[in-house]
């Protein structure tokens, strides 16, 4: 785990945040609710990438488990919700949280909305951007925590050949490759780590947090 956090720390050096760090929030509501289990429901997608929700959903379990909470398996939860007639993230987010929590016996429900998930190409540079909105609501319907996190990444060439034209070509190739197949997962995983684990408004530890 220490190695993973070190890798994430090194990686974040190459990231540019979409906004300045948020002010410290009051976490009393979360502490008072004291959830032990969290249900992660399907993600609402505001981007143009239809695959984005599944990618994001697959990254949410690990940081919550690291913080010491039982997290219902996301694929199982998605299947159960579909059996209840809930297929779209938007419709699921519109349901009373009390109903969703009771369906699984969860103490709290995590809602995530994808605000941005895109790669913008400008001349010889491609910038990959992700931005997410997070909300945790207790089983009684009370919102106990919320956060927004956005990150950007622009691949750069660290090796200069001494030939400006050659270096420009390399930058153009790197940008084109990133534009053709942008890798959103490292940014998404880092955003989750910053929000749930490392950030100033990270959620308090759960009851199953392992002492280090």
Q: What would you say this structure looks like, in words?
A:
The protein has 212 residues and is α/β, with parallel strands linked by helices. The chain has a single domain, classed as Rossmann fold. The protein has 9 helices and 7 strands, in the order αβαββααβαααβββαα. It has helices at 2-12, 28-33, 52-59, 61-66, 74-83, 89-94, 97-104, 164-180, 185-198, and strands at 15-17, 37-40, 44-45, 70-71, 108-122, 125-138, 143-153. Strands 1, 2, 3, 4, 5, 6 and 7 form a 7-stranded mixed β-sheet that branches. The longest helix is centred in the C-terminal third of the chain and has 17 residues, at 164-180. Mean pLDDT is 81; it is low at 1-19 and 157-181.
Order of helices and strands: HEHEEHHEHHHEEEHH
Q: Return Rg in Å.
A: 19 Å
- Percent of residues in beta strands? 15-25%
Runs in which pLDDT lies below 50 for 5 or more consecutive residues are: 1-19, 157-181
Provide the CATH superfamily. ABC-type transport auxiliary lipoprotein component
Estimate the mean pLDDT confidence.
81
CATH architecture label: 3-Layer(aba) Sandwich
Topology record:
Blueprint: H1 2-12, E1 15-17, H2 28-33, E2 37-40, E3 44-45, H3 52-59, H4 61-66, E4 70-71, H5 74-83, H6 89-94, H7 97-104, E5 108-122, E6 125-138, E7 143-153, H8 164-180, H9 185-198
Parallel strand pairs: 2-4, 2-5, 3-5
Antiparallel strand pairs: 1-7, 5-6, 6-7
Please summarize what this structure is.
This protein has 212 residues and is an alpha/beta fold. The chain contains nine helices and seven strands.
